[in-house]
Design goal:
With about 300 residues, the chain is mainly alpha-helical. The protein is about 75% helix and about 5% strand. It has 2 domains: about 120 residues, no CATH class; about 150 residues, no CATH class. The chain is built from 12 helices and 3 strands.
């Protein structure tokens, strides 16, 4: 009996050792091949990355682009424990999507369409994760990868369609606010007439800059502060009216300073400083919105529990 027991224990230990080795092999990923692939992608997309950085530097609407890859890397690092627990199961489906992403890249290159080339990087990156590591890894890394969308400038044809309506909405809201201040005002499209003064709500004053930055910030903030998908969507969508309202307030301030202290008082440092100040106001409003949504969710849960 004793000998049989020892043999049984040895067999169990051998099986456990084999299972442990298999588990370790499952979680071990080839090192050289992924590094070669990463190097190849870096070479292929070198011109895309250079043009992106150049546009971030030149276009104030996308100056936040420098922060997006860093935030994405932090989100990956924040998931390191989940990644360790993921099963290593490469999928050939990823190779199919990789081909699609590369075709999009070369199509964009032939058509000189920057947006296609830039967006193809996200598809290629997602496909490589699926192809090299598997669906579990892709599921964990989906948000950090998709977050990179915020670093890609919107095509001009779409940007123009967004910007002009924003100019009109900002002009209309600012006109109502100026009237509340007792200042005679007349709106003609995106032109605000203040007696002998005329203020043009140009593209730079449409609020698109703060909207883009606030959307990215709101997405990250919603991810960290809320567990419910519905709450997260509400918080992210709230950035749109917040950005519009804050921008109209900035135009109102500009009009007030122009009427009472001259146009020079509303230009230069004061104009730029007001933009920074009101963006902070927008962040505070975003935090208050998140708090309100969370309180509403708690109240709803309590009522459902009754």
């Amino acid at each position: 009996m004793t000998q049989q027991t020892q043999e049984t224990q040895e067999t169990q230990e051998t099986q456990e050792t084999q299972e442990t080795q298999q588990t370790q092999q499952t979680h071990q990923t080839p090192i050289i091949f992924p590094l070669v692939v990463i190097a190849a992608v870096a070479v292929l997309y070198r011109s895309v990355f250079v043009s992106l950085v150049s546009e971030w530097r030149v276009d104030p609407n996308y100056s936040h682009g420098f922060l997006i890859p860093l935030m994405s890397l932090y989100l990956v690092w924040e998931r390191k424990q989940k990644l360790k627990a993921c099963k290593f199961s490469p999928s050939n489906v990823g190779f199919v999507f990789l081909i699609c992403g590369l075709l999009m890249f070369f199509a964009g290159k032939l058509a000189a369409e920057n947006f296609l080339m830039r967006f193809s990087f996200i598809i290629v990156l997602s496909s490589l994760i699926l192809f090299l590591y598997g669906k579990d890894h892709l599921r964990v890394l989906a948000f950090p990868v998709l977050f990179l969308v915020f670093m890609i400038p919107v095509p001009s044809i779409i940007m123009n369609r967004i910007t002009f309506p924003l100019q009109l909405v900002a002009s209309k809201l600012a006109t109502h606010s100026i009237q509340l201040l007792g200042i005679p005002v007349l709106q003609e499209g995106n032109i605000i007439r203040l007696g002998g003064l005329s203020l043009e709500v140009a593209k730079a004053c449409s609020g698109i800059r703060s909207l883009m930055s606030l959307l990215a910030l709101g997405t990250v903030y919603a991810y960290f502060t809320s567990k419910s998908m519905t709450s997260r969507v509400v918080i992210v969508l709230s950035t749109i009216p917040i950005a519009i309202m804050v921008n109209s307030l900035r135009i109102t301030m500009t009009a007030f300073l122009s009427v009472h202290y001259g146009t020079k008082a509303a230009e230069g440092f004061i104009h730029e400083f007001s933009g920074v100040l009101l963006f902070l106001v927008a962040v505070i409003l975003l935090i208050l919105t998140s708090f309100t949504v969370s309180q509403f969710s708690k109240l709803k849960n309590r009522l459902n529990g009754i």
